[in-house]
Amino acid sequence: MILAFTGKGGTGKTVLAALTVLELTERGAGDLLVIDADPDANLPDALGVEPETTLGEVRERFKREIEEEQLPPGFDKQAYMEYLVMTALHETEDYDLLVMGRSEGRGCYCAVNHWLRRVMSELLPRYDLVIMDCEAGLEHVSRGIIDGVDLVLIVVDHSRKALNTARRIVELIDELESEVEDVRVVANRVTDREYRVIRREGERMGLSFLGRVRPDEELVELELRGRPLTELPPESKARTDLREILSRAGVL
Ligand SMILES: Nc1ncnc2c1ncn2[C@@H]1O[C@H](COP(=O)(O)OP(=O)(O)O)[C@@H](O)[C@H]1O
Ligand SMILES: [Mg+2]
What does pTM read for this prediction? Predict the structure, then answer.
């Protein structure tokens, strides 16, 4: 199963992705791959791990070596590329983490996105479960990163803008006929009173909700102290609420 967190920037994609990894690893979820597909990567911090390199960096190395003709004639480009990708895979006891990163300099992310798509088709079948933290906005939909995902979770907060982004993501998925099994909305950092309004408004836009995660003071405290979210206790509000959502989604 592939699960992707998307939505407007700042709504809580990275937090929910990290806490999902935490819930899964504490239960022993089988072979788990975690992908930070946001060029402004901060999932490793949330998880408290420090991968040495990113997909963007190994791709730069590959490009440089080709351009400077550092590689022996007739060598197997594809095999070398796969080897480089494996070096970007950060292995922990509980899961493997791949950070997409970005291209060097001014270039756009197209090239890294292209690599990511190729890598995904190679890597994904090796895992039981894949968790992706996507870039904010619509890019991952238009670039096909989302194709093949079983459950897209769009995160919204109490803002109208976040609901509008959610609606546009759903529309784009439909328009591009992306191969996505299910698309659901999660409201994050909202009170129950706020959630009732958000859900009503969102449903009017045709959005389908899985639940809400309440504002969590313990989580804010960890963030302020620069601590990883893996230190959040199981009975905290955010983890309790997320567990409910994940079981409703059939992930736990
Ligand atoms: N349920 C919550 N309660 C309190 N703070 C939260 C909650 N969810 C997210 N935050 C805070 O909101 C900020 C943005 O979250 P983040 O996951 O980085 O957003 P995104 O990845 O969507 O840009 C973070 O500083 C995080 O600590
Ligand atoms: Mg993020």
Answer: 0.96
Enclosing domain of residue 78: 2-248
Ligand 1 proximal residues by C-beta, below 6 Å: 9-15, 136, 155, 188-189, 213, 215-216, 219-220, 223, 238
Sheet hosting strand 209-213, strand order edge to edge = 89-91, 96-99, 32-37, 129-134, 2-7, 151-156, 182-188, 209-213
Q: Which ligand sits nearest to residue 40's alpha carbon? A: 2
The ligand with the least distance to the CA atom of 158 is: 1
Distance 61 CA to ligand 1 centre (A): 33
Q: For the domain that residue 172 is a member of, what is the CATH number?
A: 3.40.50.300
Q: Count structural domains, the chain.
A: 1
Index of the ligand 1 atom closest to the CA of residue 42 = 18
Q: H/E element holding 90?
A: strand 89-91
Specify which residues 33 forms β-bridges with.
Answer: 96, 130
Q: Which residues crowd ion ligand 2, with CB under 5 Å?
A: 13-14
pLDDT by residue, tens only, the chain of 252 residues: 999 999 999 999 999 999 999 999 999 879 999 999 998 999 999 999 999 999 999 988 888 888 888 888 888 888 888 888 889 999 999 999 999 987 766 666 677 777 778 877 888 999 999 999 999 999 889 888 899 999 999 999 999 999 999 999 999 999 999 999 999 999 999 999 999 999 999 999 999 999 999 999 999 999 999 999 999 999 999 999 999 999 999 999
